[in-house]
Amino acid sequence: LLFVNNKMTSFPVMSRRTFRGRAGPTDGRLNKHQARKRKQPKLKTAEKDTEHGEVDKITSPNEVEAVLIIDAENSLIQKSNEYPENGTEPFHEAEKEARCQFPTEASPADKEIKHLLLRIKNLSESISLSSAAISNPETWRNNVLNAVRNCIIEWRAILDHYELNEIQIKDPSLATFLLIQQTMQCGPLTGSNPGYFKRCGSSVAKQALVFLNETVPTVAGANLYFTEKQSVTIEKWKTAAARAAEKDKLPSKSQFKKQTGKSKHGKKK
Fold it and tell me: Crossing angle of helices 146-161/202-215, nearest 10°?
């Protein structure tokens, strides 16, 4: 009995529905013993023939054995396993041959080449991030020309000490040329084209000419294994630098501001 507004009533108390567990949206459509039960996925079965002609079912890839194939001459040929014991796919024949030709342990020459490439990469990044700081000709000579010269000396020493094949020569030779090209396009030589000496002044042109003659003295560049086109490009830079050095001119107004930090009238920018 309940008292509502001081009056006795005989209506039963309606309790709130209690939820237990995590109900799913489709529980009402399933039987009670199947509600919220996760079904285990069935493995795909493969079949193989045994020696007695019976068929066995294989439920795991690791259980697949080598298959015997009879050729035209009634000889048995054992086919390689599709799934080896370690669970990895078999290597291709070309990859096996490549692994035999190039062992995992690096040779001393490969280690030297790796060190050179890393050194060239770090120097190239440093030049790219210091474009404003190396605009001064003296800073450009000390921090860029000398550093690049040391890299070229190291590459020439590797060529003199080891007998390298074409594959080993290709990457460091190209990296060395690109580093020289970057040197001819940074600092006081910053511009759209490398080796442009008409605005930098005769002093910078002389420094560049000395650098090119010391690092790449031969016409063909055979000692550094440059291509014919690369060697011709370097010779063009030498010719342009020699012409600019002979004229004995001051740098242009824009280049003078970059190199000295002030205008030709003596005012700082």
Answer: 10
